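Observation: inputs received (chain + MTE).
Thought: call the complex predictor directly.
Action: predict_structure
Action Input:
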Amino acid sequence: MINIGILTVSDRSSQGKYEDQSGKVVHEVLSRLDMQVVAYDVIPDDRNLISRRLMEWVDEDGCDVIITTGGTGLGPRDVTPEATLAVVDRLAPGFTEAMRVSCLSRTPHAMLSRAVAGIRGRCLIINLPGSPGAVHECLEVIVEALPHAVEMLKGGGHGL
Ligand code: MTE
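Observation:
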């Protein structure tokens, strides 16, 4: 069972102006895995708040994987990658590289996301862009690799 955290980063959704559709898409796509959502929140594009939430979910709530959505673009308030980099010990760039490569064949806008992925303790943190469509497209690229990633984070080997 994989413990999942879903963190939606959006000024407008956090103010209740929009329903959090992107978080729902994350849940839908991941529901094909043997997983449970142990942490969920919708917060504004605030660097310290994002970092704090990520640290709490790893250090206190035992998340194996945290998926963030939103705040990865070039806008002045897009700070999710920086907030993530501030709390990870090691990088895991393969996830975001794969998403960008795959999604570029659909839209050149895929290059506008500055999403990063990294490891804090034994938790994998992956940024996704904010729109529900982008979440779906990006998550489809990496979802099948997540169970093995979690096994490795827990110290498991490569045996099939
Ligand atoms: N990736 C995919 N697969 N599909 C998309 O439509 N949109 C892009 C990009 N990545 C997109 C995508 C756009 S338009 C932006 S601005 C960036 O993600 C950043 O989005 P964010 O600021 O909501 O995180």
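Thought: report the result.
Final Answer: The two ends are 17 Å apart (CA to CA). Residues 70-73, 78, 103, 107, 109-110, 112-113, 129-131, 133-134, 137-138 surround MTE (CB under 6 Å).
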